[in-house]
Write a structure and sequence with these properties.
The complex is a heterodimer of chains A (about 375) and B (about 550). Chain A is of the alpha+beta class. In chain A, strands 1, 2, 3, 4, 14, 15, 16, 17, 18 and 19 form a ten-stranded antiparallel β-sheet that branches. In chain A, helix 5 packs across helix 6 and helix 7 packs across helix 8. By secondary structure, chain B is mainly alpha-helical. Chain B folds into three domains: about 160 residues, no CATH class; about 100 residues, no CATH class; about 150 residues, Rossmann fold, CATH 3.40.50. Chain B is built from 26 helices and five strands. In chain B, helix 6 packs across helix 7 and helix 11 packs across helix 13. Classes of the chains: A alpha+beta (about 375), B mainly alpha (about 550).
């Protein structure tokens, strides 16, 4: 069953976390920024879902598949693209999507993939979970529903290996082994606000990923893994490309100094406010652009619970963006969207501009 | 020392002091346990290579962490007296005039100030490292037998002390000592009557170090090695061990035996009261509450840390928080419960006690990062960085004549705004002569923003004032560095405000390294330490 979803609808109820001056709080490192989203407490389903990292155990009995057993009496939303990196004598595997698992149930996804080429063996009863790096997400969502073989994830690992100069080949563990220390420190760069429900990630001031979680508690549970394993790859790539932060404050200050006779402290304060506002405006503008976006949503049934009342999974595709939503009666529990690597947002800007112009045009008449 | 060597010494000392006051043995948010140990050991090796006195000089500084001091001493004991080279102190002074001993004992006392378990752990490490040379043996025996409160420690750390003594004496000598002790104690009250050889052994191994009569020493020895069946500890002579003996059959009403020891006794199925006091969960809770209520030998710091569990057990116990010396315990109790007026006053008094004497700066500005990351992480005890930062700010406030303290207001680390707020609060008549920023260094607005603001302010005003970043993340960062705010800010890591002065000194020693070293050696010379409290022992 195919349908469409507007971006505004996917993130309904959410809003960016702001400081006391009303500026969107933008946390930055090098050329990467994150904006945290929050929502009203009534939209955070804290008591409904169990912790995905502790309530599930994973196993498999065939390459290219992953089974999850939910040992809790609560439902579990499986975060997008989780991997098992095990110490067992077994081949590591990864998911190409998010999932939903009913209480005390077991489910098997046949569209999973190997993430450790030459290793053999099946794992069982493990909770050694990691998140797959965000830069691989696009290729993985394109593989949702592909149940033949076990190589769904290999091309994405190969690309990650090139992008991060880790020589990962078909081995995701090689990437993690090389950068684990750096990734661990990366967690400390960002602070998780209270009542976090989602995250928007920007690179070079362009939105590259958006995640919305089922609840504040859930966001807290997956925060470290998301920052370290998932988004960390972006910082590693930025560092390799020698990307640095522009001295925005200094620029603002120099600009202000030309026209003001204020004392130094007032000038510093004004420059700081201007710097923060400029960061806010830039982010706001980018989010605004996405608001016009509409995704094609394709129902994903592979491995997902099929009960009439169970939440449904849809794979989302739009110009330049791809992702997934787990939704139930128009309430979106989990949303995960990434920008396609090859996509130039300027193209979208041109399309939007044309659309706006078209809307302003009067209908033909004499 | 050549000029070239002086440069290396200076650099190593600065790095050594940074690690010594930051590194600990457990994992933290940023660093694994192994990484920290590696950083400490590498630093000590480097210092030792330059000159063997350097690690001990740093280990004698107040604020050096227990783990750092332990590693320095372990290294020193391993190398024996003859290892390494003295390049700073005249070797005659070091070896023959006892300066080496004073340095080791100063470091050992410094370690002891962290708590006796630190010293005992070091002595156990000696066993694991198979170190048992003559000097080490004498220092270990002098320390253990010289404890004023040995009866209490024997009860509390029975197995550990026995393990240490067995290693130090060796299995054979331990057995001989125990055999002599059993023989003598059975004579009951009589003075030591043994062969000349036996007297010699006992004098050399025990009495030389022990402040007490031989029968007392024998009874303690038999207790430690659990060979005391049939031995009676009279209340007059052994007020604590006599209670312990009573607790072996009845724990009710016992007041002077540590809580953990009593719990150890009653939880054994062989204890006569086990089935009536420990067999069910209900009985356990009631027994724990009774023990918590009765025991009088729990330290104030531990009692403060137990505030929550004491309330959970339903026990009402008045704790004299004014006597607490552990600021972490006080703050954590405050964060978890509430900062009562009594708690605030205790913290205030403790900060006054810990204030830095002869502090270099009179008017200071202090920024405290109060963001979420300061509450710590799963690897670290909750609220530790926050407590270190809050207490350091207080101590700084007490140490200077005037202090303005500003806390970050949002949940995110926005130090730049706080810096401007601090400038706004500056009194024109009392301009800041130093600014301290207490933060883990992870800015959120964007990396380096605060440094930009500081540098522009300094450039525009022409003010040259030291700006210190104090990181409460207690770990040995790779290369002895913590996360820096920027180039113009001096960065240091501390786990206790006591470490502030040596850290600031470390920066000041850049000005005159020789003078700094000279002062440290003079301080060692003047240190009132001895291997034993009875007599001085020469190797």
């Amino acid at each position: 069953m195919n349908t469409t979803r507007d971006f505004t609808e996917l993130l309904k109820g959410c809003r960016p976390v702001k400081d006391s001056d009303g500026n969107i709080i933008v946390q930055s490192i090098m050329n990467m920024q994150i904006v945290c989203l929050t929502t009203d407490a009534e939209f955070s389903l804290d008591s409904r879902f169990a912790n995905p990292l502790t309530s599930l155990t994973a196993g498999n009995s065939s390459y290219g598949q992953m089974s999850f057993t939910n040992k809790e009496n609560k439902e579990v939303i499986l975060p997008a693209q989780m991997a098992v990196m095990t110490k067992q004598s077994a081949q590591n595997h990864g998911m190409v999507k998010a999932g939903y698992i009913e209480p005390r149930a077991q489910t098997t996804y046949h569209d999973a993939g190997c993430v450790q080429g030459g290793q053999t063996g099946y794992f069982r009863g493990t909770q050694e979970f990691r998140m797959i790096p965000v830069t691989m997400r696009e290729m993985l969502w394109d593989a949702v529903g592909q149940t033949s073989g076990h190589g769904n994830i290999y091309p994405a690992i190969q690309k990650l290996g090139v992008d991060t100069q880790s020589g990962a080949g078909n081995y995701l563990n090689v990437y993690f082994d090389k950068y684990d220390k750096k990734l661990e420190q990366f967690i400390a760069h960002f602070e998780r606000p209270r009542d976090l429900i989602g995250i928007i990630v920007l690179i070079d001031s362009e939105i590259v990923a958006v995640d919305k979680f089922p609840s504040f508690t859930y966001a807290e549970q997956v925060w470290d893994l998301m920052i370290r394993d998932c988004y960390g790859a972006l910082a590693i790539m930025s560092e390799l490309k020698n990307k640095t932060t522009v001295n925005e404050f200094t620029l603002s200050y120099e600009e202000l100094k030309k026209n003001h006779q204020d004392n130094i402290i007032d000038l510093l304060e004004k420059a700081l406010k201007r710097t923060k506002k400029s960061m806010t405006d830039s982010v706001q503008e980018k989010i605004q652009e996405l608001l016009e976006m509409t995704f094609d949503a394709k129902l994903d049934t592979e491995g997902q619970a099929s009960g009439a009342r169970a939440p449904k999974s849809y794979v989302l595709k739009a110009d330049g963006y791809v992702g997934q939503v787990i939704t139930e009666n128009e309430f979106n529990h989990l949303v995960s969207v990434v920008k396609r690597d090859r996509f130039d947002p300027n193209a979208l800007r041109e399309v939007n501009e044309l659309r706006k112009k078209a809307r302003r045009q009067d209908r033909f008449s004499l | 020392m050549t000029q070239k060597m002086l440069v290396s010494v200076k650099q190593s000392l600065i790095e050594g002091l940074t690690i010594a006051s930051g590194a600990k043995s457990s994992a933290t948010y940023y660093h694994g346990k192994d990484e920290q140990m590696k950083a400490i050991q590498t630093q000590i090796r480097n210092l030792y290579k330059l000159s063997k006195e350097l690690p001990l000089i740093i280990a004698s500084q107040k604020g050096a962490t227990g783990r750092f001091v332990s590693e320095v001493l372990l290294n020193e004991f391993k190398q024996t007296l003859r290892g390494g080279a003295c390049n700073i102190v005249n070797p005659i002074d070091w070896y023959d005039n006892g300066l080496s001993d004073k340095a080791v004992l100063s470091a050992l006392n410094n370690l002891g100030e962290n708590g006796l378990p630190y010293v005992l752990r070091l002595f156990v490490d000696l066993k694991d490292a198979k170190v048992n040379n003559e000097r080490t043996r004498k220092i270990v025996l002098g320390f253990i037998w010289g404890q004023d409160n040995l009866e209490f420690y024997a009860m509390k750390y029975r197995n550990k002390i026995a393990q240490i003594l067995r290693h130090t004496y060796g299995v054979k000598k331990t057995s001989i000592l125990l055999s002599i002790a059993q023989k003598q104690v059975n004579i009951h009250g009589a003075n030591l009557v043994g062969t000349q050889k036996e007297i010699g052994i006992v004098n050399d191994a025990v009495l030389k170090y022990f402040n007490g009569d031989s029968v007392r020493a024998f009874k303690l020895l038999l207790f430690l090695f659990k060979k005391d069946a049939g031995v009676t500890y009279s209340e007059a002579e052994f007020s604590l061990l006599s209670e312990y003996q009573k607790a072996q059959t009845d724990i009710t009403g016992v007041r002077n035996v540590p809580e953990e020891v009593l719990l150890g006794l009653i939880s054994s199925v062989r204890h006569p009261q086990y089935h009536t006091m420990w067999a069910t969960e209900l009985q356990k809770e009631a027994t724990k509450a009774m023990i918590r209520k009765n025991v009088q030998v729990t330290s104030v710091n531990q009692q403060v840390r137990q505030t929550k569990s004491t309330a959970k057990l339903g026990v009402e116990k008045t704790v004299d928080v004014q006597k607490a010396t552990d600021f972490l315990a006080l703050y954590k109790t405050g964060y978890e419960n509430t900062f009562t007026a009594e708690l605030k006053s205790a913290i205030d008094k403790l900060a006054e006690k810990k204030k830095i004497q002869g502090f270099f700066y009179q008017n200071i500005g202090v920024i405290v990062d109060d963001s979420i990351s300061m509450t710590g992480n799963k690897n670290e005890s909750k609220n530790t960085p926050r407590a270190i930062a809050d207490f350091t700010a207080k101590v700084l406030g007490k140490s200077a004549q005037n202090a303005v303290v500003v806390k970050t207001s949002d949940v995110f680390t926005d130090l730049a705004t706080s810096f401007i707020e601090l400038l706004k609060k500056e009194d024109a008549g009392k301009l800041y002569d130093a600014i301290f920023i207490l933060t883990d260094g992870y800015e959120n607005a964007y990396d380096g923003l605060t440094n930009e603001v500081i540098q522009i302010w300094k450039a525009e005003t022409g003010r040259v004032i030291p700006t210190f970043q104090i990181s409460p993340i207690t770990s040995a960062e790779v290369g002895a560095n913590v996360r820096k705010l920027g180039q113009g800010v001096v960065t240091m890591a501390i786990n206790n405000p006591v470490a502030l002065q040596p850290q600031i000194t470390a920066r000041l020693l850049e000005i005159d390294t020789k003078m700094w070293l000279e002062n440290q050696v003079l301080a060692l010379e003047a240190a009132p330490v001895k291997r034993t409290k009875k007599i001085s022992v020469n190797v």
